[in-house]
Every structure is written in C-alpha cells, then in structure tokens.
Amino acid sequence: MDHGGGDGDMKMPMPNGMMMHMTFFWGKNVEILFPGWPEKNLGMYILALFFVFLLALAVEILSFSHAVKPGSNPTKTGLTQAAIHALRMGLAYLVMLSVMSFNAGIFLVAVAGHAVGSFIIKFRVARSQQIADQSFHTSSFPPKV
C-alpha cells in the first residue's frame, strides 16, 4: 500500500547501500546470509541456490533418527542425538534466514531441498521395510506339518 508519492515498491534501505526487499522478488542481486554474498553475478547466484538446496536437503536427512540399539550407552547415545539435533536446528535456521531474503529463487530451492530430502528418507524407509518383509517371507523356516 502506497500512501503518497512512492513507487509502491516495498524496499527498505540498508547501511551498505543495498535495499532489503519486503516482498518476494526475482533476480540475482540478493544478499544471503553474509554481506556481499553472493556477488552480483549469475554464477555466484546459482552457487547460492545450490547451497540453500543442500542445506534444506541436509535438514530433512538429519531429521531421520535411527532407533537406539538395545544395550548401547545411554549417555553416549543421548549426546550424539543431541548434537545431531543441534546441527539440524542450526541448518534449519540458516535455511530460514536465506528465505528471509525474499528472493523467489531461494524460496523455491529451499522448498525443493526439503521435498527431495523428505522423499529420500521416505523411500529409504519404505525400501528397508520391503526388504525386511521379503526376507521374513522367504526365510528358510522348515515347513509346518
């Protein structure tokens, strides 16, 4: 909403001379996570898109928790799971901060990374379940008489 004389663009000036967008926009001229990154060229923007995709993918893959093995050291297991959770949360916050750039390309690759990561996890779980079911049904139990 423009209340007089403006061009209707929702931008906020920043100290470094760049403008922070307050609505989604398309374009390679964006800052993500660090000042001046990516630079204002297409190659660095594509690298940033790939980086955000990998961050989102890693968040989903780290969300898959393996079952605790019976007899394992509960302290060691708890510390390991807490460290993985902390890493996952840190990466999730980096994805969130990247999306807060309001760049539509960054938003789309973040969603795609989460989707691909979720698919990989669900596919692996379904496949391991299928293999477990097959091995149960084809085991060498003696025939019941």
Automatic annotation (TrEMBL):
<keyword id="KW-0187">Copper transport</keyword>
<protein>
    <recommendedName>
        <fullName>Copper transport protein</fullName>
    </recommendedName>
</protein>
<keyword id="KW-1133">Transmembrane helix</keyword>
<keyword id="KW-0186">Copper</keyword>
<keyword id="KW-0812">Transmembrane</keyword>
<dbReference type="GO" id="GO:0005886">
    <property type="term" value="C:plasma membrane"/>
</dbReference>
<dbReference type="GO" id="GO:0005375">
    <property type="term" value="F:copper ion transmembrane transporter activity"/>
</dbReference>
<dbReference type="Pfam" id="PF04145">
    <property type="entry name" value="Ctr"/>
</dbReference>
<keyword id="KW-0813">Transport</keyword>
<feature type="transmembrane region" description="Helical">
    <location>
        <begin position="91"/>
        <end position="121"/>
    </location>
</feature>
<keyword id="KW-0406">Ion transport</keyword>
<keyword id="KW-0472">Membrane</keyword>
<comment type="similarity">
    <text>Belongs to the copper transporter (Ctr) (TC 1.A.56) family. SLC31A subfamily.</text>
</comment>
<dbReference type="InterPro" id="IPR007274">
    <property type="entry name" value="Cop_transporter"/>
</dbReference>
